[in-house]
Specification:
By secondary structure, the chain is of the alpha+beta class. The chain has a single domain, classed as Gcn5-related N-acetyltransferase (GNAT) (Aminopeptidase, 3-Layer(aba) Sandwich), CATH 3.40.630.30. Helix content is 30%, strand content 29%. Strands 1-2-3-4-5-6 form a six-stranded mixed beta sheet, with helices on both faces. The radius of gyration is 16 Å and the shape is globular. It comes from Saccharopolyspora flava. InterPro entries: Acyl_CoA_acyltransferase, Bact_Acetyltransf, GNAT_dom. This is Acetyltransferase (GNAT) family protein. One of its GO terms (molecular function) is acyltransferase activity, transferring groups other than amino-acyl groups.
C-alpha cells in the first residue's frame, strides 16, 4: 500500500492513501458515524460494501481515499470520480462524494486540508470543474463548502430506485 500524498496539519502528518480492502471496515465505520449514514448504513454485513469497493477499485475514473492519522487508523475518507463531458468544450469534471471525517477529528482543519488535496488532485488530472452534492439538511456542511469557495449554483434532484 503506497501513500498517495500527505497532509501536514498542526504538527501531525496524515497519510492520504488509495483505499484498500483493509480500510473497508473503517470507512464503513465513518459512514455510520454520521447523522444521515446512521439510518442507511450497516456494519452487520460488509459484503455489499466489498462488492461496491471492488467496482470502485477496478474503475480508473474512481479514486476512493482513506486518510490515516499518524497512529494508523482511518480518520477521513472521500471518493473522487473523474467525468469526461462534451459541455464546457469537452471539459473533465471531478465529483466529490462520500466525504466523512471522524467525529474526534472534526473542526480541526482536516476536512479543509482534504478538500484542498482533492481539488489539487482534480487539477492535476486536468479537470476544469469540481462539483459535489450535499443533503439539504447539512447546513454546517453548506457553510464549510462555501468557505472553501464552492457556490450553490445548481439545484440537484435524486430518485431512489
Amino acid at each position: 500500500m503506497r501513500a498517495v500524498d500527505e497532509l501536514h496539519l498542526g504538527g501531525a502528518t496524515y497519510r492520504v492513501r488509495r483505499a484498500s480492502q483493509d480500510h473497508l471496515a473503517e470507512i464503513v465505520g465513518l459512514l455510520l458515524d454520521d447523522e444521515l449514514g446512521a439510518g442507511r448504513e450497516s456494519a452487520d454485513d460488509l459484503s455489499p460494501y466489498r462488492e461496491a469497493f471492488a467496482a470502485i477499485d477496478a474503475d480508473p475514473a474512481q479514486l476512493l481515499v482513506a486518510v490515516e492519522d499518524p497512529a494508523g487508523p482511518v480518520v477521513a475518507t472521500l471518493q473522487l470520480t473523474f467525468i469526461p463531458g462534451l459541455a464546457r468544450q469537452g471539459a473533465w469534471r471531478a465529483q466529490i462524494e462520500a466525504v466523512r471525517v471522524a467525529a474526534a477529528h472534526r473542526s480541526q482543519g482536516l476536512g479543509a486540508a482534504l478538500f484542498t488535496w482533492a481539488i489539487e488532485e482534480s487539477r492535476r488530472r486536468g479537470c476544469a470543474l469540481v462539483q459535489l452534492t450535499t443533503d439539504k439538511k447539512r447546513t454546517d456542511a453548506h457553510r464549510f463548502y462555501e468557505r472553501l469557495g464552492f457556490t450553490a449554483s445548481h439545484e440537484g434532484y435524486k430518485m431512489s430506485l
